[in-house]
Amino acid sequence: MVKTTHERLKEHLNFLIEHKEILKASDIFYPAHCWSVKKLIILQDYIKPYLSILTAKENNKYKYSDAWFYLDLFSGPGASEIKEIKTLVLGSPIISLLKGVFPIKKRDEIVSFTKWFFIEQRQDYVNTLKMRVKKTLNKLEEDHGKKFSLNQDVFVLKGDCNTKISKVFDIIGEDHKRISILAFVDTEGFTNIKWPTWETLLEKSFVDLILVYFTSGAKRNVKRIDFDQYLPVLEDWKKKKIKRSGISDRELVDILMRGICKQMGRSIKYASLPVLNIKKSEIYKIIWMSHSKGAAKAMKNSIDLADKISDQDISNIFKILLRTQRDLTSFDTK
After folding, report:
1. Which of 122, 111, 137 is nearest to 51 (CA)?
2. Residue 3 has what DSSP assignment?
3. Helices 92-99 and 123-144 meet at what angle, rounded to 10?
4. Burial class of residue 119, CB neighbours in 10 A (0-12, 13-18, 19+)
5. Which residue from 91, 113, 107, 117 is spatially nearest to 47, judged by alpha carbons?
6. Distance, C-alpha 320 to centroid of its chain
7. The pTM is what?
8. Where are the alpha helices (DSSP H) in the chain?
9. For 308, what's the count of Cα atoms within 13 Å in the CB-facing half-sphere?
10. Helix crossing, 5-18 with 37-54: angle to 10°?
11. Element (H, E) at 114
12. pLDDT tens sequence for the chain (334 residues)
């Protein structure tokens, strides 16, 4: 039976709040809003089809890759507090762990990422994330009978992603000939990630990208940008024109996306979802890119769900789950 939008949203939001022991491992969290949940829904939805496709075998050999890595360039403390509801939800690193290990009955095996990499600059967030990761690894062992270890399977790296990206690939090493990477890039500002970092990441084959791109902040700062650091190579005349006349959010995103597509170097599947605040102003875009046709179908379903739901829908479902509001059979959708 096909689930309704209401049922799907309720399932997603319940997952974000039900793991109390992990959430309460620390009282440190990242401040967020109802609209922040959309990127978490998309990540939740995408991991299982992503790993299911990439771990498929033909004649007892993996068809596409022989190792699968999750990379989070701006990891945070592993939990956020939704301001409007005053409730904690799981952050992207913890979602990637809980969703990134699951059984496939047809194959009689448990699949998972080969390794996870979480990069974070703030020391208090690093300490807190490690606490939540340890709780999560304990749960994975209980649920699946499979043991994962910090600093062996899961790496929490303190520092700037622009310098730590090389450490990630040092750890991956040369042991695997065909690697796949799911990169979740939830950057707070246009200048948080430099173009050479994109180059280092995207030169690796089979990178799937979920990028949360803050268009509002990018537009305000565009005249102060050092283009050689943060954007792919631009002609001098275009730099001068942008400095003189400015640039729209759409043009700025297009420049970056064209550069990323060129760097990935193959036929790319692409989807984009604008995320609006309560005043209906765009805050950021959630951008997805992949080489996989199969993954495109999974992403379309996820983006369709995120596009249908409003902040009020998210707020209502949280209240229902927290038992501060009675359940409804219908609610506001676009």
Report:
1. 111
2. P
3. 20
4. buried
5. 113
6. 26
7. 0.92
8. 5-18, 20-23, 37-54, 92-99, 123-144, 161-172, 195-202, 215-221, 227-230, 236-245, 249-264, 293-308, 311-321
9. 16
10. 90
11. none
12. 678 999 999 999 999 999 999 999 999 999 999 999 999 999 999 999 999 999 988 888 888 889 999 999 999 999 999 999 999 999 999 999 999 999 998 888 999 999 999 999 999 999 999 999 999 999 999 999 999 999 999 999 999 999 999 999 999 988 888 899 999 999 877 678 999 999 999 887 689 999 998 876 655 555 566 667 878 877 777 777 777 777 777 777 788 888 888 888 767 888 889 898 878 888 888 999 988 888 888 888 889 999 999 999 999 999 999 987 766 554 454 4
Q: Which of 324, 331, 332 lies closest to 87 in space, CA to CA?
A: 324
d(CA 320, CA 27): 24
- Asked if residues 74 and 161 have their Cβ atoms less than 8 Å apart, the reply is yes
Residue 296 vs residues 48, 131, 271, 293, 303: alpha-carbon distances, Å? 13, 34, 8, 5, 10
Two tokens, residue 314: 């998210």
| CATH code 3.10.450 for 5-321 | no
Specify the amino acid at residue 133: V
CB 314 within 8 A of CB 13: yes
Q: Cα separation of 74 and 5, whole Å?
A: 30
Where along the chain do its domains lie? 5-321
Residue 287, beta-bridge partner list: 211, 272
- Exposure string of 198-219, with b = 16+ CB inside 10 Å and e = fewer, is bebbbebbbbbbbbbbbbebbb
- Residue whose tokens read 């600059």: 121
User: Residue 318: how many CA atoms within 13 Å on its side-chain side?
Assistant: 21
Strand, helix or coil at 96? helix
Q: Are 289 and 209 in contact (CB under 8 A)?
A: yes
Residue with tokens 């993996």: 62
